[in-house]
Design a protein that fits this description.
Length: about 100
């Protein structure tokens, strides 16, 4: 099991991006969270088996400046780092 922290920059707040990430994560079987950060970016914690988490991240990266399932986001940069696995049991939006 692995855990990754993904930071998504661009026009990603108040445009439905967190809900988009929630839908994609649930479909992929990812556990973790997605939240807005005070600097205007979005932070995702994704946990699961490597064969699921890594394609999820690559999918987010391939969505840069694409139509994102009805949301109006404009992603300009995505960074990722490994973080300690904490054992989330679901994926949720942190408010």
């Amino acid at each position: 099991m692995i855990a990754k922290r993904i930071v998504v920059e661009g026009w990603v707040q108040d445009v439905g991006y967190r809900d988009y990430v929630l839908r994609v994560a649930v479909l992929a079987g990812i556990c973790g969270t997605v939240r807005n950060r005070s600097d205007g970016s979005v932070e995702i914690i994704a946990e699961g088996v490597e064969d699921t988490v890594l394609p999820f991240i690559e999918g987010l990266k391939s969505d840069v400046n694409q139509e994102l399932g009805g949301c109006m986001a404009k992603v300009t940069r995505i960074s990722e780092e490994e973080v300690p696995f904490t054992g989330f049991t679901e994926f949720r939006v942190k408010r």
